[in-house]
Amino acid sequence: MTRARPLITDLLGGLVVTAIGVAGFVESWRMPRFAERHADPFTVPGLTPGLLCAVLTVLGVALILRAMAGRGGAVAIPILEWPAGSAQRMIFTIASVFLYGFVLFGNVPFLIATGAFIFIFTIGAELLNADRELGLLPLGVGALVLAIVAAFAIRFIFVSVFLVRLPG
Amino acid sequence: MDGFFQFLHAVVAIGLSADLFVVVWATLLGIVIGMIPGLTATLGVALVTTLTFTMEQNTAILVLICVYIGAIYGGGRTAILLNIPGTPANAASALDGFPLAKQGRAGEAMAVATTGSFLGSIVGMLGLAIIAPWLAEFALDFTSFEFFWLAVFGIVLCGQLTAMDDPLKGWIAGFFGLLVAMVGQESLHAYARFSYGISDLEGGFGLLPVLVGAFGCAEVFVVMRQEATHLVASKVGNVLGSALSSFRYAKTWLRSGAIGTFMGVVPGVGEDMGAWVSYAAAKRASKNPEEYGKGSTEGLLAAETGNNAAVPGALIPVLTLAIPGSAPAAVLLAAMIIHGLRPGPLIMITQADFFYSVVAMVFWASCAMLVLGLLLTRPLLYVLKVRREWLMGAIFVLCVVGSYAIAGRIFDVWVMIAFGLIGFLMRETGFPVAPMILGVVLGPILDNNLRRSLSISQGDPLQFVSRPISMVIAALVLAIILFSLPPVQRALGLVLSRLPSLSRKNGDA
Prior knowledge:
Strand content of chain A: under 5%
Distance between the termini of chain A: 49 Å
Order of helices and strands of chain A: HHHHH
Largest sheet of chain B: 2 strands, antiparallel
Strand order of the largest sheet of chain B: 1-2
Largest sheet of chain A: none
Distance between the termini of chain B: 58 Å
Structural class of chain A: mainly alpha
Radius of gyration of chain B: 23 Å
Oligomer: heterodimer
Shape of chain A: flat
Strand content of chain B: under 5%
Shape of chain B: globular
Number of strands of chain A: 0
Number of helices of chain B: 23
Number of helices of chain A: 5
Largest interface: A-B, 79 and 67 residues
Helix content of chain B: over 70%
């Protein structure tokens, strides 16, 4: 890995931090001062976030300048290394997690949503696993049993024991 | 002496009640959580918090403390047998624990880790019992100026210590966390900041969904991204015999216990730094430093003592200042508030019984950890054989349901997933996550006390540094920042390297 790659990551990170800082500062400045209520100017809502955003901007600019000067990169940057298996697992994990968290949970009955997610996740993760020991049939049966048991167990613990009302 | 009797009373009260059963199952649950790679103590405490809503106050806190102590200890097993720390606090344990396991001494390593963790917890518990009442009394003199500086000090120090090689990223993470805490209705004018008319945002981001996301959901991503792990040893022996041998290193565990406790007290730093600093100090003081990293039982003992001593240490600022000493302690603080407890400087006046109950809880959790750790060494090995592909789906469901259960808002699930992605990206790009979480916790404290102080002083900055305590904390903040700057470090290095020659010249003269 060349030294330039971590520095590019730092440069991009610095840009994001600076952008957040500047945008936050502008928004803080636009917050009301409540002069009509004769509010103490030192208690206005935008004061603390404005100061924090100013500090964040300074730190972001410092990160950018450090990266441009070719310094830094002392900390390991794992995002630069993506072996094929790792990338496939990540794409699958993010896709399935989003499917459950944003689509299924709350819109589909809990038992069905949770059972389907755990079944799909287990099967998918095992199929992407290079060291898979189980054949397709035992894997499918095992994942199905896990999905049913986990969905019912989680529902029982939260709904019956801890009296939480779950959606769907 | 009153305190001692109150502590004894609390110990007996737990020992003679059904709570003793709670101690056993909660500590065992914590050990199992800590052992599973990807399940951290923070995630464990956060998830279990959602299960304690309907419990009685003291029982709920007892469960959480047992899970916390058990998880920090359980992670050591994974470090020894898989060379992967079960929790970040056990990273230093892998340095000597794994080589010991490879030499066929896994049982000895686990016994040493168990005794070390127990001794660390007990030293930390003594620190908690002695330091906390003193600190609470001292903190009664704190005004908004001191609390403001304490919040800044926590962020700056946590950012520095969790990213020793790159404090700039630690500070960015800390200030980002503070900014996250600004979202939602502020307390002085009831104005909803950064909300844009979205009612969910007006309530702000809940601490628990943020925590579960940044540590739990992010952990699911991290574990699935990594390659699979394999057990180095599935047979162990000589456990009980080796446990007693740890007592030989009295200096090591006393020193590590004291260091761990101190690192726990420092806001946001916590167990992993407790282990690393204890390990480094033990190596420096050892007669055989060359054995460290190659299977030194003393090194393993130092690391495990240090991380478990940090747990009671982290409770000291939680109870006396309402400022967390570590990430799991931040969840514990949130759980205490959810359960109607009010930690802070007044705790020794208004809730002294509760304080000594917490000390007794640490005592019982430590005892349970010792007994379970030594007796269940072989059965607990099966936990490490569970494949991540079969576990992570259910873990993610627990993260989702746990986040939802707090307020019954789907929005909290979205926040949890968003912070899971943010936490994952931060780790991947070298930003530490702990300062961000500390920032989210300290944000309201910093905001309220900054504006209150400015209002009192009518904007006079001198009043922020004219009171003795605030002056000392401000000087510490300045010193941390200054000594982190590369030009200052270079200049300091130059001066230090010239010191011997200067003293020689003076001697010659």
